[in-house]
């Protein structure tokens, strides 16, 4: 027999072996859980769910205590400890609700499988009435109506959890969170540029073409809140060939012999922009890949940021050290409700 005949026979055999319709296998045999068969097991599962909800409540209370009792200081350790306490309590609060809901569904709620035939999308009034009844039946199956302790636990946990977010947010807005703090930094006229973290002032003669310096204001640690101020004042200093620089109109005097300084705070969400590519003069933000062109006013060339990095105007003093001409001319960091761009 030829190859052509073999292919035709196989095709004919395949076509006749596939049935037009498959028999409905039906639902598998239901397997009852221990809580369905043993009332003691059911009560034990209920107590376990209540304990998880109570843990959530304790986590919420703990987060409020941590927020008011643990105040971040001027050290990295104090900030870390405060954030750690808040994070752990918040995690316990949310995790307790999640685990309780899963355990409740797996041990106490009805787990009988139900299959329905596919129906038209548009439902008539009888179908809608049946759907409402099904919801009522589901609430009845959950057992919440006849488990008062469980009902109280879930309502308490769910009602209190939003406080873990609302209280710190309201406390910050109604407390010491002033928008003016985002508009200004500690840079002032005559402030020397210093290396981060050593604090050593930088001479213009030490900055060669292609070199990059991470910069902070000189004597920053003498400031009362120097950690907070450093977070806003950090700068990236780069020296380019002056022929490659495209000065923004009105800012021709903001650079010195090809040395330019820009804020390190990304204008997208505030991540540190510190990855510099010498050949393209591009600065890359590692968080969301916003890319800025240092040779062209730090304009955005790629990514979600919607405005250039603010430029710090610089010059030199009588000893040849790089100094700031003034503070940034615009707010640093991402946009906010008083600055849309």
From TrEMBL:
- UniProt-listed Pfam families: QcrA_N, Rieske
A GO molecular function held by the record: oxidoreductase activity, acting on paired donors, with incorporation or reduction of molecular oxygen
- The UniProt annotation puts the region (Disordered) at 1-30
Domain Rieske, first and last residues per copy: 232-323
Membrane topology of this protein: Multi-pass membrane protein
Task: Tell me which SUPFAM superfamilies the record gives.
Answer: ISP domain (SSF50022)
**InterPro entries reported for this sequence:** QcrA_N, Rieske_2Fe-2S, Rieske_2Fe-2S_sf, Rieske_Fe-S_prot
Skewed-composition ranges (Basic and acidic residues): 1-11
Gene3D superfamilies given for it? Rieske [2Fe-2S] iron-sulphur domain
The record ties this protein, via PROSITE patterns, to: RIESKE
Q: Is the Transmembrane keyword given for this protein?
A: yes
Tell me the keywords, alphabetical order: 2Fe-2S, Cell membrane, Disulfide bond, Electron transport, Iron, Iron-sulfur, Membrane, Metal-binding, Oxidoreductase, Respiratory chain, Transmembrane, Transmembrane helix, Transport
Q: Would you name any one GO CC term?
A: plasma membrane
Q: Where would you find this protein in the cell?
A: Cell membrane
* PANTHER family assigned to the protein according to its UniProt record, in alphabetical order: CYTOCHROME B-C1 COMPLEX SUBUNIT RIESKE, MITOCHONDRIAL
Question: What is the stated purpose of this protein?
Answer: Iron-sulfur subunit of the cytochrome bc1 complex, an essential component of the respiratory electron transport chain required for ATP synthesis. The bc1 complex catalyzes the oxidation of menaquinol and the reduction of cytochrome c in the respiratory chain. The bc1 complex operates through a Q-cycle mechanism that couples electron transfer to generation of the proton gradient that drives ATP synthesis.
Q: Which family does it belong to?
A: Belongs to the Rieske iron-sulfur protein family.
Spell out the protein name for this chain: Cytochrome bc1 complex Rieske iron-sulfur subunit
The record lists the organism as Flavimobilis soli
């Amino acid at each position: 027999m030829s190859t052509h005949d073999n292919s035709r026979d196989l095709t004919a055999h395949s076509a006749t072996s596939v049935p037009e319709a498959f028999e409905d296998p039906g639902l598998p045999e239901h397997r009852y859980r221990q809580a369905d068969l043993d009332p003691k097991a059911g009560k034990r599962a209920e107590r376990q769910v209540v304990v998880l909800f109570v843990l959530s409540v304790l986590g919420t209370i703990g987060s409020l205590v941590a927020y008011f009792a643990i105040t971040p200081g001027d050290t990295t350790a104090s900030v870390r400890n405060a954030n750690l306490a808040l994070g752990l309590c918040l995690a316990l609060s949310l995790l307790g609700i999640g685990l309780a809901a899963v355990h409740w569904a797996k041990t106490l709620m009805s787990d009988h499988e139900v299959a329905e035939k596919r129906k038209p999308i548009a439902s008539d009034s009888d179908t809608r009435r049946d759907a409402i009844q099904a919801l009522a039946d589901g609430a009845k199956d959950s057992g919440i109506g006849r488990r008062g302790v469980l009902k109280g636990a879930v309502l308490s946990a769910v009602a209190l959890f939003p406080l873990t977010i609302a209280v710190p947010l309201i406390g910050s807005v109604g407390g010491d969170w002033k928008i003016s703090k985002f508009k200004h930094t500690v840079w002032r006229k005559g402030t020397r540029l210093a290396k981060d973290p050593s604090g050593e002032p930088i001479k213009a003669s030490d900055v060669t073409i292609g070199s990059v310096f991470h910069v902070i204001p000189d004597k920053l640690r003498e400031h009362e809140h120097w950690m907070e101020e450093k977070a806003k004042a950090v700068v990236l200093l780069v020296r380019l060939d002056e022929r490659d620089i495209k000065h923004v109109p009105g800012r021709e005097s903001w650079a010195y012999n090809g040395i330019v300084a820009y804020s390190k705070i990304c204008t997208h969400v505030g991540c540190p922009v510190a990855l510099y590519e010498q050949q393209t003069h591009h600065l890359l933000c590692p968080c969301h890949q916003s890319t800025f062109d240092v040779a062209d006013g730090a304009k955005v060339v790629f990514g979600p940021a919607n405005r250039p990095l603010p430029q710090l105007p610089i010059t030199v003093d009588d000893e040849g050290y790089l100094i700031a001409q003034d503070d940034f001319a615009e707010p640093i960091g991402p946009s906010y409700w008083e600055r849309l761009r």
